[in-house]
Design goal:
Chain A: It comes from Kangiella spongicola. Chain A has four helices and seven strands; from the N terminus they run E-H-H-E-E-E-E-H-E-E-H. Chain A has 163 residues and is an alpha+beta fold. Chain B has 511 residues and is an alpha+beta fold. The chains are: A alpha+beta (163), B alpha+beta (511). Strand 4 of chain A pairs antiparallel with strand 19 (450-457) of chain B.
Chain lengths: 163, 511
């Protein structure tokens, strides 16, 4: 059992994000590219150069296509699982990371929803710790119900932040 | 009943407080106002600045009248503000550090500025500016429990030295810094550079005007004086004189820098003393402004031992700690990180034990990182060398391969030394990481203080089945040396992660 990559070390109980999160992130990418396209067109209109215009259109198209592929890739490489000790989140397409947030280090949790996420009934779970670099660990693209369920599961019994 | 309780708990600032609030405010606005006055100007902006300054200062005095705090059984309640009222409550057991500061004026009036830090990060939880020693004692008793108070307060006026000595006999200090050590500290840290940078920054603001001309004239005068007196002593050396001048200038520059640094160190560390008292570390220091930090040992999150090239020359080390109290910059408030600014390298084990007695320091075994890292770092530095060398093509093509080869060899040497110096350790209490070629640093994070554990894998790591392990703690300074172990095998990283998980989840986090 030689582990070549973090991907090979994912346990069986690991869960994926909601498949609709791909759609949601593609839509938000599209909106971003559209805004870029409009801004670029306006600029090239003022410069009135076809060369600039075509470069802008090409670049935006490239960004759009990459974003489209990236959404799927990112979904494929993101997973999370809950153990007795805490929450594991693994993500990243090229630069991968596996973050562990121990249960007894969680300060509080947030479930957040944007307008687009509401449309697909998705949500973002944010786990807060007392840390510095990882003061907040986000898990974006869960279904709203799963996010709430996870939040309940992470909730500790009683107030044991004893000092 | 409630009202009588309130009046019993209520405290106000010391009568002399407005002076200190005013001085503080003046200090805050002094620099911008100065620049506005001497900088490029002539407009009426400077008058507006002055008017604003005046209003701010007067406001500060009023501020004093509205500052109240209550020492309730379990918490301190602080109320401040005139228009925007602010009231906060901090439970005593959530207070991380108590820092005191006393400048000469404080000492004359027998008062002190108190800064309370909780783990909220950023700004201090409360700054009490100023109260008398009795109030400080009362506060300390409430926060740390009744029994203490053999600890030395920052010098109660003139009798301080005798007092300190008397206390030192009852409670031997872990560390004191005699003058020679402070001189070494000054040379090692070279803070003079910072002062120079500030001075240059200030000078660059003087675009024109009388003061700038004055300074320039004086500089030219000094240079002339040096060159004429030099010529009269040694005689004219012709072309060689430029070399000699540069050399002399360098020597004087370095000497000047050292003197500046040592002066700076002396102001900061004069009469430094670190004592341990009922599980708390108490550091007292300062020439003009005396400062005192009290840190409960159990609140130390990470511990860093620094060992730079200069440290090695003098066979000394510097130790600093991080607490969850998030005041990391001097602008945010009083901060004392260097709990042991300088000590002999062979005292290392003892100091470590004194500062964290419940850690098994003796069974620390350093594990090297993978030796394959030499190859990887060399590859990186060769690539970087080639890229850096390419612009030399415009000079002459032959420079490109020459520079690239020389830099690559240096890169290979660096990689070897880097890998040799990088290691990690893990025992039951701490995880440690050391790295650095010129500035060597070791950082230990207590396992009970670990917040999250990350295993990271870059595309390059993947080709070698390697990974990086990173540990996060509360109150860490962003960008500072922390436990981040690169170039270890992925399976080792995962094994450490699961080991840490097991231990962390059995240790309740206590700030």
């Amino acid at each position: 059992m030689s582990q070549q990559s973090l991907i090979d070390a994912i346990p069986e109980e690991a869960k994926r994000l909601h498949p609709d999160s791909v759609k949601a992130s593609r839509i938000s990418h599209s909106i971003a590219s559209l805004v870029l396209l409009i801004a670029g067109t306006v600029v090239s209109f003022f410069i009135s150069s076809w060369l600039v215009c075509s470069i802008v259109v090409g670049a935006v198209l490239l960004i759009f296509v990459l974003g489209f592929i990236w959404a799927k890739k990112s979904y494929r490489y993101t997973c999370y699982w809950l153990t007795d000790e805490g929450l594991y989140i693994q993500s990243g397409v090229f630069w991968r990371r596996k973050t562990l947030v121990p249960r007894n280090r969680i300060q509080h949790t947030d479930v957040a929803q944007g307008p687009l996420q509401r449309k697909f009934s998705l949500a973002k779970l944010v786990v807060y710790t007392a840390g510095t670099r990882d003061a907040s660990v986000p898990l974006d693209g869960l279904s709203f119900d799963v996010a709430n369920e996870l939040r309940e599961q992470l909730r500790q019994d009683g107030d044991d932040d004893a000092v | 009943m409630a009202t009588t309780m309130q009046s019993k708990d209520e405290r106000t600032l010391h009568k002399t407080s407005p002076i200190f609030i005013l001085l503080d405010n003046i200090k805050k606005i002094l620099f911008p106002v100065l620049i506005a006055l001497i900088g490029p100007g002539g407009s009426y902006w400077e008058y507006i600045a002055l008017a604003v300054a005046l209003i701010v200062s007067l406001g500060a005095i009023v501020q004093y009248r509205f500052y109240r705090y209550w020492l309730e059984p379990n918490q301190i309640r602080v109320k401040e503000g005139i228009i925007f009222r602010n009231e906060r409550q901090v439970p005593y057991n959530r207070i991380q550090n108590i820092n005191l500061s006393q400048n000469p004026l404080h000492r004359i009036l027998g008062v002190v500025t108190v800064q309370l830090e909780s783990a909220s990060g950023g700004k201090p939880e409360a700054v009490i500016n100023v109260v008398d020693m009795q109030a400080v004692k009362e506060l300390k008793e409430l926060i740390h429990g009744k029994e203490e108070n053999q600890g030395s307060e920052p010098s109660d006026e003139a009798s301080s030295t005798e007092n300190d000595k008397a206390k030192a006999t009852t409670k031997p200090a872990i560390l004191t810094l005699p003058f020679a050590e402070i001189v070494r500290y000054g040379v090692i840290t070279n803070k003079g550079l910072v002062i120079l940078a500030v001075a240059f920054g200030f000078l660059s603001q003087l675009t024109d005007g009388v003061i700038k001309n004055f300074i320039e004239d004086k500089l030219v005068l000094i240079a002339n004086w040096i060159s004429t007196s030099f010529d009269s002593v040694v005689g004219d050396l012709g072309a060689l004189s430029i070399v000699v001048y540069t050399l002399v200038l360098c020597i004087f520059g370095i000497l000047g820098l050292w003197i500046l640094s040592i002066t700076f160190a002396l102001f900061k560390l004069h009469d430094f003393e670190l004592v341990k008292n009922r599980g708390k570390l108490q550091a007292t220091m300062g020439l003009m402004t005396r400062m005192q930090a009290t840190i409960p040992m159990s609140r130390i999150q990470t511990l860093t031992v620094r060992n730079s090239l200069f440290h090695r020359w003098f066979k000394r080390l510097t130790m600093s700690v991080e607490t969850a109290g998030g005041v990391n910059h001097e602008q945010q408030g009083l901060t004392i990180k260097e709990i042991a600014p300088l000590f002999k390298a062979d005292q290392r084990a003892d100091i470590l034990y004194q500062i964290q007695p419940d850690v098994a320091w003796q069974d620390i075994k350093w594990q090297p990182i993978e030796s394959a890292a030499v190859k990887r770092i060399t590859k990186k530095s060769v690539l970087a060398s080639v890229i850096v060398s390419i612009p030399l093509f415009w000079l002459h093509w032959a420079w490109v391969p020459l520079a690239a080869v020389v830099l690559s060899i240096l890169g290979y040497w660096y990689a070897k030394v880097y890998v040799k110096n990088t290691a990690y350790c893990l025992n039951h209490d701490v995880i440690g990481f050391k790295s650095g070629v010129i500035f060597k640093k070791e950082t230990f994070a207590r396992i009970g203080k670990i917040q999250t554990v990350q295993v990271k894998e870059s595309p390059f790591d993947r080709r070698y089945s390697m990974a990086k392990l990173e540990v996060d703690t509360a109150g860490a300074t962003v960008g500072a040396h922390h436990v981040e172990i690169p170039y270890i095998m992925l399976k080792d990283a995962l094994a450490i992660q699961s080991k840490l998980v097991e231990r962390v989840s059995h240790k309740q986090f206590v700030w």
